[in-house]
Automatic annotation (TrEMBL):
Spans traversing the lipid bilayer: none
GO process annotations (BP): phosphorelay signal transduction system
Protein's name in the database: Response regulator
SUPFAM superfamilies: CheY-like
Chain ranges of the Response regulatory domain: 10-126
Amino acid sequence: MTDAAKPLPAILYVDDEPTALKYFQRALASQATVLTAESVEEGKRVLDRHADTIAVLVSDQRMPGAYGNELLFYAWDRYPHIVRILTTAYSEIVHTVEAVNQGQIYRYIQKPWDITALRMEMKQAVELARLRREHAQLLREKLLIRQKQAVANRIGTLYALCAGVTGNAGTVPIDAYLSAALCAGLTPPEPDWLLMDYSDLIGSEAFRSAAFGRTVREQLDALAGGGAVPGDVFGLLAEAFDDGFDRTAEGGTIVHTSRLTEFLETPTASGVSDLHAFWLAVLLWLGRNGQTLQLSGGPDGVHARLVPAGTTPTPVQLAGWIEQF
């Protein structure tokens, strides 16, 4: 797209003086789409409607009902990508300095304006807004990549944990575990790890996984020594999940689906509950006995029924699971 074909950036100017609004529009018409509002409250409404397209917000300071820095704070709190500029007379400099110190504005422009300087200021502000958007997009892309890496690493840890607890045959239930997580609608883990050094992250994840593995082993030993048989599994789940499990003719429905995704989606610093460890222990216990759960999603939760266990997943199949998250 050529520069001539690109849409003009949008600038919102808020001022209670109609003459100032017309003057600003006329001065910037060639380089921006100028939206206007005549009060702080009207400015908020325009912001809320057009925040995705507005690059720069310029507000007069002294207006009836509220000062302009209130509007700039509103934009700073809700739409941080918008570059905020206060325009003010010299007599209002105290309020301007306060707004600058609070981080509400990029800069201020003193009235009366010099048209050439005003156009240059708006050009620089629009460019800054563009850079902010690009930076935010890069951060979003980095976040998505890191989230997928976090889930992939945790799936690999689960595979190793299952094999370590019950031998290679213990990796069979990972299909059921991951199927349940997909049916439950996994939310990628919260990005607390973006704020951590890499070594701290790896250490925290290792301790979290080790603690989870110990609890799973304890739960599995209790199941193995309890005298139950695979056909008792839905009674065991109903007892553990309490009101979060409904018995059905074919098996049961897990109503509180967040209980099926905890290890994969909770933040690094959060421990994993005994109930979630019990869920994985049940799948491992069934696998030891040649059975597993077939899971399917529904509006009322995740449906489960008892079926014969399949084969140990291959590396390609495990990679296929990871790609689905």
